[in-house]
Fold each of these.
Amino acid sequence: MSKTYFELKYRGPYKGVHVELPEDLITPDYTPFMNNFILKNGEIRSRPRQGLYLPGPPDNNPILFITSFMDANNVYHTCIVTATGLWQLNRTWQRTPITSTKTWSLVGAYPIQPGPNNPAAIQVFVNKLFWTNGGTNLWQWDGITSVGAPNIWQKNTAYKQGAQVIDSHGNVQVAGNSGISGSTTPTWSTSLAGTTVDNGTTPITWTEGGKPAPSNGFQAVGMVDATNGVTAGAFFLIELNAQLLMLNTVESSGGNFPQRVRWTPSGLPTIWDPNVNIGAGFNDELDVPDSILGAMTVGTTAFILRQNGITEVTSTGQGINPFNFNHLWASDRGIGNIYPFGYASYGPLGIFISSDDIYNVSLGGFNRIGGMARDAIYTDLYQAVSNPVGSIIPYYQLNYVYNHYKLVIPQDAGTKIWNYSIEESSWQSEFKSNTSFVGHSRYCFTG
Amino acid sequence: MQIVNPNGPNPFPPPPIKPGAPPTKPLGSSPGLLTSTGGLYGVNGALLTPVFNSITGKSNILIMDANNFDCEEDGEYDFPQEIPPREQPQEGRDVTCHLVILKYRELGYARFAVNLTTYKRLTDSFVTVQYLVNIPPIPLKTRMRKQSFPDKEIHTLYIPIQVVGERPQASITRSGKSGPMSITSLTICGNADQTPQM
């Protein structure tokens, strides 16, 4: 029998996993299956090593987040949170032998019961780290104070807008503007929301914020009703229009409000009580049938993600009603976010997982991105034994730019990882055995 | 699980001491500004992920090491099944593959397998022929080659392989920690029957 010569060539750019057609019908640039390879720059390369670890904190509790932030002194802090409290990476952690206790130092322990062991929502705002994880408090650390409670007011001292001090009556006073305190103690207003002018070199207007929330190394700042001592935390935390927003709140009076959004006045992330500053407020999304399962800021717009819908939040520029909530759809069933920690955003781009596909959202609208790998991803999601967690990672290191959405799915034998290359629109899979990814991946400073 | 090796090279060397280091006392220009509690220079960094190891029962921070492509886990990349010739696929014909041309970037010592799988109609089963690849394929003998290895350049490897059957499918497999590898292209050469076998 005569034969015909043939050549079957495979060359980049490779487009990742394709399971939407039988494996003998897909084009040569796709793969029906891959594991622990990375497709980048037209090469099929073994993925970067994930074999080095920093020791965990001495308490060995699950780590709810890791992030770095810069404080008001331009000093960086790399922090983690566990059920014990807030830890930061020591500057001298590299000194051998590397141990937990040499690596991490406890900034402070929770003075009261924190939230559950979920990935915590975090936000860095005006050089301070804010976090909350489904408990009844929003926590803050500025990287500077180590004793936790707001400092006693001091004369001839520079304070930044939003700074908190304790006045001579034991109440919290919040600086409405940056300035320098006077040489004599002002006559503090003793009424809630009352203002006091501090006539220093640069006068400061202080606002009385009631009794301080609990603190220990760091402090709780989610006092939503200073008169009655009601505090609030939340499952989600974002920043929009220089205001901090808590969503799906958990409050010390009333419990969980899965449809509630609370916000602070502009530039004052420690004031949440509308009676203290009318710029603070809240809104219950009662006109939609589902609850809030995420939120992200995309450019100048925020998107509140519900199970079956999305609400667009834009700034009105007004002090009392600062936001316009526009439900893009409010149907019983529709495109929404079904995994509370599976979404991620990066600048003008957000990605979330709905019940029918994975979507990206930008100011240009929504797009399906599950593509040819969707069914394989959803099969893995079905086998999740814990919360899938999403992160958008622009680079591994500055010499290795790889802008991708990383979806980690804890399974019985380890963690299945799906990477979506944002530049090449391809899905690639990895597996890390005997290891559960419990939080978002972040580029953090280590030295 | 590997903790950062205390005796090995430090992946995060201490940052250089330079002007502008964080203050250790109140700033002169801001007499009231408090000093920071601890903190870092913000010079070195890494992609970090909180993880929990189910074997040791310990929480750790995983470091993604983008300077090392020697993945610690087993890996596999499957190419599609083929019905040659691509321009006009003809079902139900046996093909004979006799050569795989592999182009790869030399990143270091590595060992992996190139596999070719075909469907055997007579036994209703799939048969896989495996060829083990060592990088470098030729031992480093010359001084120049020893010095230049790995040269990060694209090399070509001609793999003689003899496989007969329907719908050939190539795949790459490797074991964990078997060296960094990077494939730029793969070509299967063979002959297909010109007439159907029905």
Amino acid sequence: MKASKARLVSVDGVDASAVIAAARRAIVRPGRGGVSHWDASGIFQDLCVADAAAGAPSARTLLLLYAADLAFRLRWEIRPALAAGRTVVAAPYVDTAVAFGRAAGVPVGWLTNLFRFAPPAAERHFVIAKRDAASEDGFVGLACHRVHGVDRRARRKLIGGADAHLRAEAKRRARRKKQ
Amino acid sequence: MQLSAAALRVARRSARAHFTDPARKRGLLVAFEGPDGSGKTTQRKLFKTWLKSEGYDVVTTKWNSSDLIKPIIKSRKAVRALSPEEFSLLHGADFRHRVEQIILPALWDGKLVIADRFLFTGLARDVARGLDLDWVLKLYQPLLWPDLVFYFAVSPITSGKRVTATRMPNFYEAGQDVTDVEDPVESYQRFIARVIREYESLALIFNMITVDAEQSIGDQHRQIRELFLEGQRRPWSPWNTDAVAEWLAGQGMAR
């Protein structure tokens, strides 16, 4: 049975390059799985070339766009691969966006509802960042750079906050596993 | 901008004080809702002209019109690449951006904002596409309630006749992404019937003012003027505190 080997694995973190490296390592058998990257839909690429006069988006706006991109990845990459019995590593998946939202002060209830359409990953990995490691090619780095009203100091605080949420989530998962 | 609990508390106080200050001219938000072909845009233009002649400072905002998100949606609609979830989330992002960039700043400055379609459009269309009302409604939180919502009621047949009289409905307008009907006109008739059913439920739940949009243009306009003159005296809705406070805190304006 092909479908029985299908598995969704998530790799989340604020450091985009470390997340990708961890995602590659998570595929045990390269021929039987693949990585679903952030911004497969190109939404954020389009956002980056938008006229600055259009105004900077808020954290909520960026999260709605992240969710739209994730819906695209689920439709075109993740669900078809799972249906074919493959392992899919979603890097990043839901936890990265939730951590960014929490760090920006977005209520947890809103974040939970936003990602209700995303199936839970069978395995969740967290990549803990080195200090200020979020680069602009990852969601957290780009979001912190684009979000309205964030100066350099606040950006660093926001990235640190997102990383702290991911660390806390990783600890919670580890404790639950032990129990 | 990080929204701390303390900043939000201060912002809530500022929002309440600003919008309930009797010495200050209060901003008003008026939404025009209804299916395609219900004549809302005609009525919105007439209403705006009249308001300006009465001395109001008027700002208009239309559905799916933010400079930041509209191009993203437009290019994906052109290649028919959107699922109902993506359609809903992108329109939610466009709405959020306009609330923060256009609507709230204008209300804060005491202006009158006319919204040609508001979040109810997203709710009616997304639910007609099979999405869960509760999920969609929460996407629009923190909710900003208009002072007045005019719902332009027409039958699916009238909507279909008016829309197809001059043009062919486009792929998403006709709901062809969910009806699987090849003929856009036939698909539109089926889809708009679902959308109108949702609108009618929302009009009841959210206490909208229903305007019979099968009446003459002049009669509708007169009715809107009268209802506006009565409705504009309503006090500021405290339900809007969270939406204003989050915007203020995000702008670093809480004080």
Amino acid sequence: MTKLQKSAWFNLAGITVLGIIGVAAILYMAKTNTRGVEYVLICIFVPVLVSPGLYIYCRKKSIESRFDERERVIHSRSLMVAAFGLTIFLACVCMLPFFVLGGQNVIKVYYLPLIFFSALFIAQFVHSAAILVMCALEDDDG
Amino acid sequence: MSKLQKSALVNLSMATVFAIISTAGILFLTSVNAKGVVPWLIGLFVCVLISPGVYVLYRKKSLEVRFDEREKMIDRRAFIVAAIALAIFLGGACTLPFAVLGGQSVVKVYYLPLIFIATVLIAQLVHSAAVLIMCALEGDDG
């Protein structure tokens, strides 16, 4: 298994766990009708503090130097596929309720963060799946 | 002006024009409270019919062939910057109403397509601006 495949599996597992935790937290907060911008500020403040440390700890080398030429091509192609997947998903999830319910109708606010978490999950899922499929196809070709 | 800069300017102007047209369309559809999946299917059908023709007409060569190594690097970096901006904007647009209003509150459905159009516009705007800035900075460096 190449480094790119390992990172794809790792990202897929990580985003699945974080997606489940995020959706559960959103549903709990929606149930208790939690309010307050301080939660958003905490959510911004914690990643700003944690992410530089994580970045330095986990990424001693850049993407460019970790992968070989073939892996870099697969990586950039899968990014394109993920961008397409994200756009199509967002279009469907934003436009379908508009046409089904009508613009003047209302939806619950907790639908919005669910859209956000689903979009992140779909983008990462499509990215990782595209990497694994392209690597498998290249391996089959020899 | 390099090919990458020209394509950034074309993308920027096209995204702006499409965003203005679609926002006006969404606001009109909202004012008449349009419903029905038929307009959505017509839009999808038109895109499916038109996009291959536009693709064949304007993209005779792939990105790999059209740009040189320096331009490809700038394009890749600008894509990452645009992806980060997209995630931040989408996160803000989706989680702030949740934190301010509470999950059990309601918002009008036309907020969803406006989020989608704004997200696509922001991503394209940041991508094009990043390309133009990076090209200008590299031009200054000689």
Amino acid sequence: MATPLREPAPARERTAGPPTPSPRRRRTSRDVWTAALFFLAPAVVALLALRIIPTLSAVGTSIPFGTDRALLSNFSYIFSDPDFLGSLRVTLLFSLVVNPIQIGLALALAVLLTKKLPAVGLWRTLILLPIAVPQAVSAIIWLVLMRPDGPLNGVANALGLPSVPWLVSPDVALASIVIVCSWVGVGYWMTFLVTGIRDIPTSLYEASSIDGANGWQQFRSITLPGLRRPLLFVLVADTVSNLLIFAPVRVLTQGGPQGSTNMIMYDISERAYTLGDTQAASAGTLVLVAIVVVIVAIQFRLLPGKD
Amino acid sequence: MAEHALRRERRTGNLSLIVAVPVALVSIAPLLWALISSLRAGDEIFAHLYPLTWRTVVPESVSLDNYVAVLTGPFAMSLVNSVIVAFFSVTIGLFVAAMAGFALAALDFPGRGAVFALMVVSFLIPFEAIAIPLSTSFRDWGLANTYAGLILPAIGNGLSIFLLRQFFLGIPTSLSEAARLDGLSWFGVFWRIYLPLSKAPLVGAGLILFVFQWQSFLWPLLIAPAPSVRVAPVAIADFAQEAGVDYGQMFAGAILASAIPLILLLMFQRQFTNSLASSGSKE
Amino acid sequence: MRARLLRRAAAAAAGLAVVAGCAAAPAGDGPETIVFLNPHAGAYDAVIAEFEARNPDVRVEQQSVPFDQMVSQTQARLASGDTSVDVVSVDPPRLAGMVAQGFLTDESASEDLLESTSSQVGINSVTVDGRPWAYPLWTSDAFLFYNRDALTRAGVPLPGPSDADRLTWDQVLDGARKVSEAGTARYGFGIEQVDRYYALQPILESMGAGPGLEGPDELTPAVDTEQWRQFAHWYRDLYADGLAPRGVDPGQMPELFASGQVGFFLTGASGIGRAAGSDLAGNWGIAPAPYAAGGPVVTPTDSWGVGISAYSEKQEAARRFARFVTLDPQGVIAASQEMTLPPVATAAMPAYLDYLDEVAPDETAGVGELLETDLERYARHRPTSVGYVQFETTMNRAFGDLRNGADVDAVLAGAQATLTRQLDRQRELAGDR
């Protein structure tokens, strides 16, 4: 193949603003319509049946038709509930901390692990491995490791550091959840960035090497622009998955101590599965989906790589 | 290439190793600890937690009892179930996602943006939050305690579609236009041009589907609690009983459940390497 | 082997006649399959084999879910009217809520049968509005286990096994402190079901506090009273200076005791099997659960029963099975041994005690008597309230916060506010129905 498949866009081409209609658009032929229908039908049917329609049914559940209560009473209930409001605050704080950490580490490791080093595949695999352990179990491993009298503090003490109240202090517990989630997630997101970096033609690096560019300059002028699509993917996907996290919370802290790790999805699942309040849970779900939609829409709007 | 550039590359390679190896060790340290614990006999797991001594990492005696117990019990069947379910989730899911990603990237039709928005919105929905009403529908459709009931939710995976679309967009449309002019059908373009060019992203999308299924816990509990279709994460959770938790067997189960992906990942690392070689030939 | 089979068959015939009154198998068709949803993987295997042998027209499929998922799975499946569940394990304090939601069948027809076979405490545990809604299987009790070696080396006298030897909490904690200070065990004291209302209610009530839910329907929260605050300080202080461990969940507590790191250990009957099979074997003992000086002795009770789903389409077979598991001595014994939990069926008690004698002859010498005294004189049920789930969830969280050193007044005031809000909500939703 003679032409480079992906021309990395120059850094200045960071266009924001609304997507413009494709300039190539002409009258869509019947043939394209048929093809689109053929290729999209299975996915669209699956997504409608398995995701969208059940969500719409949550709208029905959240509105108490046929009762004396106001139509939006479930929403006013959750918004008057300090636990739910607290979970919004905790989730926001968690997201602001965990996403930059995970994406920064994933990017750094991806750059590192696309260099020529011995047994690189092995290191990549080992860093990816935590995602392969069912979280219901890996969280139990961390629950033991993070005990006040657990191996993690044993290591800290052996290094001359004081013990850390990992999961028992309201000031530290959320940070501990960040650690556990990053342990699971960093290798996973790194993998997608590794794939992206691989697709940047090596000739670009070679040329800039000959021009005398150092590693940082190459990263700024070649790697980052070349990664814009995979990076947008990782950013959106990581943000969403962190907003929806709840398995580690369920095992490690049950939202405590003092509500400091009460993530919104844990709050919702408690209402749905334990308290049996499906109406409030549905209302909470809709609020959560609305928040995620807004955040992702902003990301799409502000970041390059969407086209 | 200049001689010194090569030397520089080797030097940065060694420097990178100084970072990569410790990071890899930190990543697997909790699993190593679980592995060591699963090899301990009786109550030893909790006897040497703290303070850190050499006993914390070296068992008094190595015993395979936990593995024997786990593999002769119901867990063995659940591991097989998990593999079957994951295999079909990945293969079917990948095909459906690749088709959708191709349409969204290569076909230009009005409403494409709306369909893409639908795909994106679908993966913003917390699956656990809609699992209860969905499981009721699945039971009505006769999918309770079937493999199909476990596999289907993985098929509608907007995230893998999003990923593939992002990569397919990088394939120049001139390629497909030329192929169309040569009389290749759209399916031919998809099958002969797009898929062969996208091995690495396909592995990535497969990873997304695999992880979704391998991590799945609440859904299988709701829709497939019968012993014959029980999956590994649920079977592992069963080691936590009211009268106490069998940590030895639980960790043995966790190690076995992660050994299968480990083997697969090491196999597919080779796939990544091939992709590297081919990207070298792109110029 | 042959003799055992014959014996079993004979017992089977007798048992069936007593319990189920030989139901005739429907002719034709294969066996009918009923589904039994329970949180006790493996515990019922022997019972089911026995039941199927005697009832060739019924197969029982077990769907066991992890213990901590049982409440949510029951709620999720029965609230959606799942007809595929026929028999379901029932936790007595949640019974009122399940009955109010229409999940279970009214078993009034079995009242006489229950009277003749089960202990009164057990029958009470499945009674709501004066009617039985399930079949009680096990009951429970609290004991104070101790690490013989850790106590002796710290110069703490070993507590006696009978009701008369019952220690006060002050005595126990004094001893625990000596153990901690001497370093013969890392922690002087520990509670197995730590942070759970089940384990703490008896201590609360012995200290003079109310159960926390009051009023005619037990729907009025009362957890920020003076006595509750006293208890909360006491509980919080256990952990403040490391006398008892922070950050160890109930799942890990038995391991902590079994590996010799706890001096005094408040646990239940199910702890007997675990301790007897551990490295601690021969080096531990059982004493009565302590009480607060000047207060009454209060012990916990109740354990899982078996109910029949109101949505089941095979209620006759389901009922036959539920009765077999809970009332037939053979069935009960098999299930009780697996869990080391005391049976409610009076006829099964001697066999249970024989079993304990087999497992840990020295340690359990006085347990039979103690169980009887506790159940007859001191046992206190948890509140029978449709709001119990909300109550327990909120209070367990509050206890956890106290253990981690949160401010007592803030925690209890917060819990009271949360409960008031949730129980108001509960009433509001119930008004829709």
